[in-house]
Design goal:
With 81 residues, the protein is mainly alpha-helical. It has one domain (7-73). 79% of the residues lie in helices and 0% in strands. The protein has helices at 7-25, 31-75. Helix 1 packs across helix 2.
């Protein structure tokens, strides 16, 4: 599944790539080249960032669920038989 970005976001990112290359590397590229580079980076790097975000979200959710479970134990009342 390819990463799909809204056109305004994609255009803004392409402008950011263009500005970065010009400012930091003294390389000038056109808008189409920036979009192609952005697509390449999204295809090659995007899945790694996406997977890491999933792992981070899973770890956060696990920690929250553990804290919630501990909260239930704290609510327990002593019971006599």
């Amino acid at each position: 599944m390819a990463i799909q970005l809204d056109k305004p976001v994609r255009d803004a990112l392409a402008r950011a790539v263009t500005a970065y290359l010009k400012d930091e590397l003294d390389v000038e590229i056109g808008g189409m080249d920036a979009l192609l580079l952005l697509d390449f980076l999204a295809e090659r790097l995007g899945p790694h960032y996406y997977n890491q975000a999933l792992h981070d979200a899973q770890a956060l959710l696990q920690a929250k669920l553990e804290a919630l479970g501990e909260g239930f134990y704290e609510l327990e009342k002593p019971a006599k038989l």
